[in-house]
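Issue: ligand-bound run for S-adenosylmethionine - logging full I/O for the record.

Environment: standard queue, default settings, no custom constraints.

Inputs:
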Amino acid sequence: MRAHVAVQTAAFAEKILNHVQTPPATMLDIGSGDGLMAWAALSRWPRIDITMTDISPALLSLAQREAASRGAASQCSFVLANAETLESIIDNSQDLVTSRSALAYVVDKPASFRAAFRVLKPGGILSIAEPLFREQALSTSKLQEAAYAETDNPLPALLHRWKAAQFENPFDSLQQNPITSYTEQNLLGFASQAGFENLQMELHVEERQAPPRGWEVFCAMSPHPLAPSSGEILATRFSAVERRILEAALRPRVEKGAFSITSRMIYLCGCKPNIQALNPPA
Ligand SMILES: C[S@@+](CC[C@H](N)C(=O)[O-])C[C@H]1O[C@@H](n2cnc3c(N)ncnc32)[C@H](O)[C@@H]1O
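Outputs:
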């Protein structure tokens, strides 16, 4: 499972960087976490200078230690900065701004696009990948309909309560939660309003069969980092009787891998207009 996630996240990083044709001298990663984007960029462009930004001091320290162990300490800097402002990052200083699964957590996403635009040099590239959770969240409403329709079978109502603990419902709550408040069209609009041009956006939808898993492994998982794990939901939101009904229904399917998992990823890239190129000196 961990190996699969590592392969998948490495693939996301490569796809973000594939949009960059000219090797950048400077790159800033928004919500850099433990440094996924930075290590991918360093292996492509060994001379690049990278600024990792995050709101988590612990993750920045972790990335700093990793940079040292990779012999890349002199090329990496670590800045505590909110994506909405990128405070302390100098205007027009970066050739490339990246982000992977970080803007999803940001409340004021338009402000993040404006901040990325500000710190990019004219002609600089923004390339990001963000998950789209909205469809999964909307499926909570579908389960709610099923729960009301089947009064003699307790399972749909229990499944609806489970899903509602992972993804809020109804529609108004989706708008309040930063990870479900946006669509791919919204991100495209925010980038355009911030001033980016030559925008390209791709929605990559992947449906695959879940691998067979132990029940305990399944219980430790959650569909996104802000959701409680299935085990926590079972323990805190259901009675012993309800837990038994849910486990009897779900455990055989989990252990056989008898359901599919759909993931949706938005890739977006654009360029800050190069005013000098448009107006060459006379
Ligand atoms: C799912 S992790 C992704 C980390 C990394 N980008 C990667 O691809 O592995 C989300 C990251 O976004 C950061 N983050 C969340 N909200 C943020 C904000 N408002 N400004 C900057 N970073 C933020 C978190 O601290 C975390 O490191």
